[in-house]
Amino acid sequence: MNDMNVPKTDSIAPADVLETLASELEELTPELRKAASYVLDNPNDVSVSSIREIADAAGVKPNTFVRMARSVGFEGYEDFRHPFREAIRRRGTDFPDRARWLQSLSRGGQLGELFAEMAACAISNIENTFAATDADAMKCAADAIVNARHTYVLGVGVNNSNARNFTYLSDMAVDTIWTIPRMGSVATDDLARADERDVLVAMTCKPYRTDVIDAVDVARELGLTIIAISDSAASPIVVGSDHAFIIDAETPQFFPSSVSTIALLETLLAFVIADAPPEVIASIERFHNRRHAMGLYQEEWKDR
């Protein structure tokens, strides 16, 4: 029992730890068996509860969980719970459990670690997203938008603000890009007059929104060019799309990160402007000159 070695690595799945624990159950002392049984019945508690909290729930002393962890090859309880916390961090459990995990970091005084993880994930997401595509793919998608009669940009939930930001910026140059769903509408209705002359830019990450999937299906039937932005090549909006961009949305949070989505959309817009006719630049200049003339910007600090 004590000869087994379970290294601390992100590759260990919680299910493997639980299987090992179950196989050793009969060899444990009564107190250790009580702790192990609680873990087997309540595995999600391992990731979100402190050792004192889980010991109280199991009716044993905190040190019992330390000894239980060591009995199956871990150096201590923190090593034992590491695979469970990684499963949540990598979205291996549902959103409420991830929220509880975040709260457990705060209670445990580990917000410095969370801060560092957030920064590392943001940088890594952008690096991985741009590594997964290239300028040629971006130009092809931009060409489709520039040559389209209309471009519909679809995002719901947190992606709705990402879609609206893309449309807001593009409106300075062209007036053929619209965000859907419109206020009080649904995306499938907004595509009712679309056809093969149009483009749909759609985005969704796990868990995939059915309203986005349904709208993409309708767009395909109508012959639109589909530009899909998602977090997996197996995403239902990516499969069968004309242009696809796979983004990394990793985060310690309980909802997907938008950092790489925003970065990719900003890059796509830059390609659209670079690919557009010369009068587009003149349109942007008129837009900003008018704003300056209307006093919408404060040029320098003024005493008040």
Automatic annotation (TrEMBL):
Q: Which CDD domains match?
A: SIS_RpiR (cd05013)
Keywords in alphabetical order, please: DNA-binding, Transcription, Transcription regulation
Q: What is this protein called?
A: Transcriptional regulator, RpiR family
- The record lists the organism as Roseibium denhamense
- Record's superkingdom? Bacteria
HTH rpiR-type domain location is 15-91
Q: Name one Pfam family in it.
A: SIS
Annotated ranges, domain SIS: 141-278
